[in-house]
User: Fold these one by one.
Assistant:
Number 1:
Amino acid sequence: MAQPETRFIFITGGVVSSLGKGIAAASIGRLLRSRGFTVQLQKFDPYINVDPGTMSPYQHGEVFVTEDGAETDLDLGHYERFTDANASRASNVTAGGIYNTVIRRERRGDYLGGTVQVVPHITDEIKSRVRVMADSTDVDFVITEIGGTVGDIESLPFLEAIRQFPAEVGRRRCMFIHLTLVPYIGHAGELKTKPTQHSINELRRIGINADMLICRSEQPLSAEIRKKIALFASLPVEAVTSGYDVPDVYSVPLAFHSQGVDAFILDDHFGLEAPAPDLSSWQRYLDRSAAVSSEITVALVGKYVQLEDAYLSVVEALRHSGVHHGTRVRIDWIDSETVGEAGVDARLRGADGILVPGGFGGRGFEGKIASARIAREEQIPFLGVCLGMHVLVSEFARHVAEMPGANSTEMDPETPFPVIDLLPEQKEIADMGGTMRLGADPVKLHEGTWARDAYGEPVVYERHRHRYEVNNHLKRKLQSAGLVFSGTTPDERLVEICELPREEHPFFLASQFHPEFKSRPDRPAPLFREFVGAAHRRAGGQLPKAEVNVTDARHATTP
Ligand code: GLN
């Protein structure tokens, strides 16, 4: 049974999608933490995929990997960055996952011949996924975000389950927060509250009365509008929060706090006493972020560059690192298939740093190799992540270690120099699927390297999501040509980080794991931090871009 003290907050969305429910949930989590409570966040996704692991980044954005190796929705990244509490496998539940569990149980005969139905079997399973968060983590608050929009057919079982939930734990331990949109209609010159009214009514029809509203809008809502919304929602005006647009998502917790969101949740709704919030470290980050005095350009060479969300944690890690160094990081998105075109190569040469993120499949791989070559030859700081390490190793093998045609067998199974390959034991079970290395594993860092100095510790835990590894048979050849394997598994069997020595290059490094998943606003991922630091030095330290002579060859071609 759930800890008797645990409180449950459910966050739903109405009117339209993409209102930023994840940021709102994460911000509330941050505020509760800042008042001394422990918090776990959870996301329910109403689609039928069992997890987002196989969904296209174009459909779904980045796949966020948790410490325990679950492939999850990118909102979990927001949860971790805002609350600094690690999410887990239990933090992301899809309709497909729920149905999968219930159907497997039915096949085993667990229902003893009974008819298996959405209510109660699916809804019971959904409720158990909420309770398990409280049972397994012993937290003060579980915050559950329901994906989708109220009124969607597919959200219904989830909404029905959370409607039933208070009957199990007591209404006073539950709270429903509803996020809506208050659009501004330009030609009428007015903010419109009608969609919010409809959305609240839709929730009521399902049997849920919102305890608090967060109304998204471009500008802060006037007291008058909030009063009007409060009246038809049967809520006190303090329960109507204006979720106005802010330039920096990390300022949302402060915008909520200034409107008394945490006070309303804790004092008015749950009747809990709590110390005043300590948001000082958060505020320090925002102050530093507002005070950045320069801008650098990082060329991000990838396959899904039309959709920023596909690389969300990478973007955030760059941002955290930039703030650490007092600089804004502008990303020049480069489609890896266009590398080699004159204008594109000039952009790469003009960048202060080049980054190749994770990816799957051969499309654009050669363009990524060409980018790494430019970075190596022109002394431009380079960071490779996961597939980016396969790129670095293949490039180095071909052009330095005299292994023409070197490649990953993922791209070219016939390559004469398979510098990146499946492990022998993986090949045997490849047909069974599920061979991916997922989640946090220990990484041993070797003395006297960038990597070791960046982390400042001999062993770290970082998150993985990949199949292919550096081929041990060709390791020595790469090493004798000058590549340094600065991070390995503790048994030294698998390569985790490779780099060029500092004397040879300002920063040329890649990791097999994804450092971006553990980056936090006030604690940037060490490898990103060092990469951005090197890029910042290349850009000339503190000099604001606006003052850079635009005819400076390095920047002349950057749009
Ligand atoms: N496709 C590569 C592999 O499976 C890299 C994966 C990634 O970049 N996440 O090993």
Number 2:
Amino acid sequence: MSEGLDEKLEPIYREVLHRNPGETEFHQSVHGVLESLGPVLVKYPEFAELKIIQRICEPERQIIFRVPWQDDKGELQINRGFRVQFNSALGPYKGGMRFHPSVYLGIIKFLGFSQVFKNALTGLPIGGGKGGSDFDPRGRSDAEIMRFCQSMMTEMYRHIGEYTDVPAGDIGVGQREIGYLFGQYKRLTNRFESGVFTGKGLDWGGSCVRTEATGYGVVFFTEAMLDARKESLDGKRVVVSGAGNVAIHAIQKAQLLGARVIACSDSRGVILDEGGLDLDLIRQIKVRERGPISAYAERRKGAQYNEDGCIWEIPCDIALPCATQNELTAKDAKTLIENGCVAVAEGANMPVTPEGIQAFREAGIAFGPGKAANAGGVATSALEMQQNASRDSWSFEYTEGRLQEIMCNIHRTCFETAEEYGAPGNYTTGANIAGFVKVARAMEAMGHI
Ligand code: NDP
Ligand code: 2IT
């Protein structure tokens, strides 16, 4: 996967492959950034001399630990916990926690690496990190989730803090899990340190709009891309993969802006509802009941459920992949292009494969990379940290206004950076370069860190 790299970057990438064997998702995310950096080394030769790229590819600290817990039958279960503290040049490590059986070091490192540049793009003072566990929350009772979270925090608490490392949610981690994790941190440290976690409940230090922020932000970014092409969301057919936190709020904001959202999915299958998705019903099934999305078709007339279906085969104007990494391949990209899709924005982290991204680029489709398009979540986390630091609490309207402004700024930064480096319209290049240069400059200023 080293084709397309500048001759100075090729050996750096080979070294990353050699030092991190088997971590394919991490390799993919590093390659995706290095691909854009050739012209940066021409403009800033000092970054090569200072080995900034080699340093950025090596996490500052990686913590792997045992998480033992007892299930409801009294049986002992053992999981593995991770926290990868990738880069703190711009601020405390910041990034979510993922609970999913597929989690291993390579996934946490790909997420942590992307987070460094995403967080830089927000313009807010946050470094990059990520954590999680191979724990599978599916089918577990609240009591089991609590015992797991408490055991996880019993090790993790010594590594985090409002000035050190500030976790939040990701796949499998929402407000319930953050409550249990924060509660155990408070108990172990004897401190009500609000700023140590984001995504908290509104009654105990959380911020308005944090729950909605990633999905809303994806749609604000899509709107900005369409606006740059003198188009709008109004009346567009939209398809959103996933039915979790990001997908639900992307559906909601797209509907509010006049789009017709006709399909979503979960890890088991796809729902098509030509009448437009009923968001209350999705929330009832996926949030309150924590059930499978197939229940939607049983309760809504005219809706179809396709168990092994591919959501990208449904003709649409706009596609928003909001479930997981590598869920949209080159084949899917070609199908979307043939069906007349004009814009794609990544709500999930790295949902489109490199070949898929290339197909969109060649077809001239507006493509918003995750580092830019889904940065609204972590940006609002940084707003939550601001409110915690000043013991303040902002209104929904004010916070949403800040989010919208941040997403417009990120869009403008990516757009202008792509133009400046000779790749007009290529938001991937723009996001990678703008994020990287900001972190690299800070590292240069701080010496050999
Ligand atoms: P949730 O756990 O709330 O939802 C995840 C959704 O994706 C569920 O519908 C789930 O299906 C589906 N899904 C998860 N894994 C797979 C898989 N391997 N194959 C198919 N479907 C899968 O997570 P979020 O909505 O928070 O996260 C979604 C994506 O957005 C992730 O890539 C995450 O990293 C990214 N992201 C999240 C942010 C946030 O603020 N939460 C911020 C920025 C990015 P099922 O219900 O069946 O499990
Ligand atoms: O991938 C992401 O940006 C997140 N899961 C959110 C991170 C955060 O700290 O809010």
